[in-house]
Design goal:
Growth Hormone, Chain: A; mainly alpha; 16 helices
Length: 404
């Protein structure tokens, strides 16, 4: 079967990601605006932002084990269609002015459960679609495509909220997920590596026990998971409060969209650069070690200065480095995980990341009512330098993606 970057199955997977990402960007901006307008509370924004993460934290490892035993294409289709219908119904209720915070919470819980199944299924499919030597470029193309959509969606989100309103943007999100699910129906039905084993409670527990043992015995992977968790804990929560940050510092709703566009543009440029450079034969961890301090200092300075032009320029640079770092890390994880446990192991690692995201959203939300967001955000970035000794450890720097 064709495993080049241009094969049909990989392109369909990219297409599905593009549609769902575009809808999610608009939905996040619309619901964030709706909550802040209704309550004026960054704490509530933080709580709502963390709900999907919390669901994925508890459901993720179990869902990852389940996805290893199911036809992964069917998982992608079902979870996208379910989310599409749920968001469309929520948008309809918003049109009727019947949408409430509890309804948003219910949809967030459902979306979190679907994401818990979707992400490991999608991650474990990529190596079946692509030759190992082009996985880094393939991941960069996926990340680059979603970065373009983030760029466009975020740039126009402020204007769309004003011109179209929150209800229509929520419905657009639902339609995007439905289109994504339909396009995924045409992906080749790759068999699961463990599909001959019936999935039940005992099998799931054994999968989790074996996978946790594998992680404990592979200290490089364990430390990478901890690095991802702590870096997300220290930084990611700020971007859930980007709208209050913009308004707090005298910028407009349109500036919020433009600032988000600069963030997405930086990530896009970084991932596109990565997709044109072959680092398969190089030491990827060494490259990341040079980029993390640059990413941290430019991000911290940009947030602290809180001037639209200066902040936009510095965050673009910071996310340029961030795009390269994330692209390499995602590909490394896919390559070094054993194929028969890829779903459950990727879910365990993702759970660590989501724990960081959820706690970050909650803590930034609470502290955001007490501390100016430019000070809070820049401090979070600088504290991320504390993970560098862990990253420079020999077992992390010694990770090699080149198979003999």
């Amino acid at each position: 079967m064709n495993k080049k970057l241009t094969n049909k199955n990989f392109l369909l997977l990219c297409q599905g990601s593009i549609f769902s990402t575009f809808g999610a960007v608009l939905y996040s901006a619309a619901v964030g605006y709706w909550v802040y307008e209704k309550t004026g509370s960054t704490a509530l924004m933080g709580v709502l932002s963390s709900i999907t993460y919390i669901i994925q934290i508890f459901a993720g490892p179990i869902a990852g084990s389940i996805s290893d035993h199911l036809r992964r294409r069917n998982v992608l289709v079902a979870t996208d269609l379910i989310r599409g219908i749920a968001f469309t119904v929520l948008g309809y209720l918003a049109f009727k002015e019947k949408m409430s915070v509890p309804m948003v919470v219910i949809v967030a819980v459902l979306s979190g459960l679907c994401s818990s199944l979707f992400t490991p299924a999608s991650t474990s499919l990529t190596p079946d679609m692509l030759d190992e030597s082009v996985i880094i470029k393939g991941q960069s193309i996926v990340n680059g495509s979603t970065a373009i959509i983030n760029l466009v969606g975020t740039a126009i989100s402020g204007a769309l909220i004003v011109s179209l309103g929150v209800p229509l943007l929520i419905i657009i999100n639902g339609v995007c997920y439905i289109v994504s699910g339909i396009s995924e129906c045409f992906i080749y039905d790759y068999p699961s590596h463990n599909e001959k084993t019936d999935v039940n409670f005992k099998v799931i527990i054994e999968d989790l026990k074996d996978s946790m043992t594998f992680v404990r015995n592979n200290t490089g992977i364990l430390k990478l998971g901890l690095i991802c968790m702590f870096s997300n804990f220290l930084i990611s929560g700020f971007y859930h409060l980007l709208l209050p940050y913009v308004l707090e510092n005298g910028m407009s709703t349109q500036d919020y969209g433009y600032l988000g566009a600069f963030v997405s543009a930086g990530s896009l440029i970084g991932t596109l650069l990565l997709s044109t450079v072959n680092i398969y034969d190089k030491k990827p961890m060494r490259i990341i070690a040079y980029l993390i301090p640059l990413m941290v200092f430019t991000g911290a300075l940009g947030i602290y200065l809180a001037s639209f032009k200066t902040t936009a320029a510095l965050l673009l640079i910071s996310f340029f480095f961030n795009g390269i770092v994330n692209g390499i890390l995602n590909a490394v994880m896919i390559i070094i995980l054993p194929e028969n446990r890829r779903g459950v192991l990727s879910s365990i690692i993702m759970t660590a990341v989501l724990i960081g995201n959820a706690l970050s959203a909650l803590i930034y939300g609470v502290l955001g009512d007490l501390i100016r967001l430019n000070i809070l955000g820049s401090a979070g970035y600088l504290l991320a330098l504390l993970i560098m000794p862990l990253f420079l450890a020999k077992d992390v720097q010694g990770i090699d993606i080149k198979k003999e």
